Amino acid sequence: MMKKVRLGIIGLGAQGGAYAGFITEGRVKNMEIGAICDIDPEKKKVAEEKYPNVPFYENYIEMLESGDVDAIVTTVPHYLHPEMGIEALKRDVHVLGEKPAGVYTKQVKELNDFAATKPELTFAIMFNQRTNELYQKVKEIIDNGEIGNIRRTNWIITTWWRPQGYYDQSAWRATWEGEGGGVLVNQAPHQLDLLQWIAGMPKKVYSNVKYGYQRDIAVEDEVTALLDYGNGATGVFVTCTHDAIGTDRFEILGDNGKIVVDDSKKVTITRLRKPESEMSQTMDMMTVAKLVMGGDTDELYGTEVIEFESVWGGQHVAVLENFAANILDGEPLIAPGSDGINGVALANAIHLSSWLGKEVELPVDEEVYLEELNKRIEEEKANPIKK
């Protein structure tokens, strides 16, 4: 029986390097580095210095076929995630996909469909925020019906400030051809996943998206999206990369109360003593005055505040350990790989709505999305912002 999972790290950049560090430090108890792969000769030097006893490959297929790895993690540009996942699964190698699952749903669907033919293999995605106790608590409250049916969601997440130098550091970054988008596919995939994981997928999306609004890039750096959940509930999602004093505030309004998350650290839960609809029908105006003028409201609702602390890397380590535990012992996955398509579908819908200038239904037409994406790739080639 396998005691530790031998992980192949494809891409020894910032993320791949972080995972290698966690494993080398012994923070992932059921995992070891099986091999490292990168096409950059400089990364080979880094690997030889930091991980001298770990095999290094310049070709990921060779690594997959080497017998050195039981599983891989794909810390590479987004377009490559589905392709590498499929190639690994073909060779009976377990897959932990980095976020996002891909750039467009058509390629992610191909990965999901192939993974479904290999149920004996573990297929997961690095949605490390699902291990965050704060968001697990929020999901538990929603799932338990403590604040009733959702009426509205509102998430403003603008803590992604990136200067021009960030975009200028590599040719592929913030391009349609190289990265497949901007803030929606690079910085905000975790929030898009959490939004649908906690509140469900919307049925329709209408968006106002700015491309190269405050940065010299082709892709989006400013997003405002209106979500329609199809049952009367609505949502707003706002994100950008040009707010130097960013905000992270997630509100969920329900029939029986409200949840407010501030800075992904503090949760304020307000539970109504009666459903809002009953309050509306039965409350006398004296009590209404008490509610709106700041009097004693204990008989109307109770408030609970919970503060959470997180340790850097702890959430990533939890996903790595959970991934290995699923391979070794069948422990249920925190983030099954097939879930990755939901956040991609939401990002695609936000893009497509802005490109077409109208509300779109989910799931969006995959062929229309790909056609519109390819138009932007061709425009970018003809008139490159990055020389």
UniProtKB/TrEMBL annotation:
Residues 6-119 form the Gfo/Idh/MocA-like oxidoreductase N-terminal domain. Residues 135-259 form the GFO/IDH/MocA-like oxidoreductase domain. It holds the Pfam family GFO_IDH_MocA. It comes from the Bacteria. GO terms for molecular function: nucleotide binding. This is Gfo/Idh/MocA family oxidoreductase. InterPro entries: Gfo/Idh/MocA-like_OxRdtase_N, Gfo/Idh/MocA_Oxidoreductase, GFO_IDH_MocA-like_dom, NAD(P)-bd_dom_sf.
